[in-house]
Known about the structure:
The protein is of the alpha/beta class.
Amino acid sequence: MRKAKVAVLGATGSVGQRFIELLENHEYFEVTHLGASDRSAGNFYGDVMASRWKVSSHIPPYAKKMKVVTCKPSETPDVDLVFSGLDSDVAGEIEMNYAKAGVMVISNAKNYRMQEDVPILSAEVNPDHLDVLSFQKTPGKIITNSNCTIMGVTITLKPLMENFGIESLYVVSMQAVSGAGYPGVPSMDILGNVIPYISGEESKVETEPQKCLGKIEGGKIVSAGFATSAHCNRVPVIDGHTVCVSVKLSKKTTEFEIKKVWADFLGEPQKLGLPSAPAVVIDYKEEIDRPQPRIDLNSGRGMTTTVGRLRPDPLFDFKYVVLSHNTIRGAAGAAILNAELVYKKGLLKVD
Ligand code: NAP
């Protein structure tokens, strides 16, 4: 199979930069177009990003010389797939235009996540949710990522749900500033501070895990039945969302058993040897004060979910702490892994 031709939409944003970085010399994908708003279009990516590139010391040379275009199918001819890191204010219409034009859309935006024929795909957690794509009426199909806050949480919950069942969930997040895009939260608001509010976040965190961990029945996704309560906080960390989780399980178990099912957890990406699949999906840290964003963020090139502090919970059954890289595992890296899965499974038509 030839490489799939792809465009990155929202290429200038926090998530877009990660796409550009992670797609350099990719085994399955060739980036042929970079899309953003009218403000950036018409200029070379290297010029637009001269003072906005934040994820490494150098903009990858392949992207520097590409001209940014607007996000219209006519501006990105011949692409097989688009990766969308678009602002949700504009993602709905633009992504649908691509789907109507027959292009597969791998989206990070919230707009289509809860639509019943759209999977919230997390490649290790629910690859069977790809079945619902056949219900989408457009020639191009839309696949979404979950919200970055629940990405690592749902990965840790999957083996718990399969082995012990989940009754209820309580989460408290400490979310990095890069989660708010660039330039994001003003430094005067966040330095030396904690902001106990992130617009729209708690409702996403309270609903997406159930769909993500749902079962396919009669070709449809039936959401899991557990209730979730969430507190979401913005903290002065650059990258990496840390989440304290308390969980009530259906069956009695032990810390030993939980650590074992986490250590054994592997998904289809590992079995298929997908390029972005981390060798270790869940890395449990025995040290008493881990995980920490500064130390554990880049585990598995930002794709491993790091967990620690598993202990009994007096109100629920167990509590623990999850760390996940919000712009890699929680966004661009997970989206690329999803695209690798559909490419490898032959669901992306590449002649
Ligand atoms: P961001 O830094 O604000 O970037 C937004 C991107 O959208 C920019 O490339 C911007 O282009 C483009 N854009 C804005 N208006 C546009 C328009 N009218 N037409 C075309 N392009 C337009 O945001 P982000 O943090 O990367 O987030 C992108 C998406 O991913 C959002 O939907 C967000 O909710 C989701 N997400 C983010 C994270 C994270 O950790 N940051 C994690 C998971 C999911 P210009 O530069 O030209 O304005």
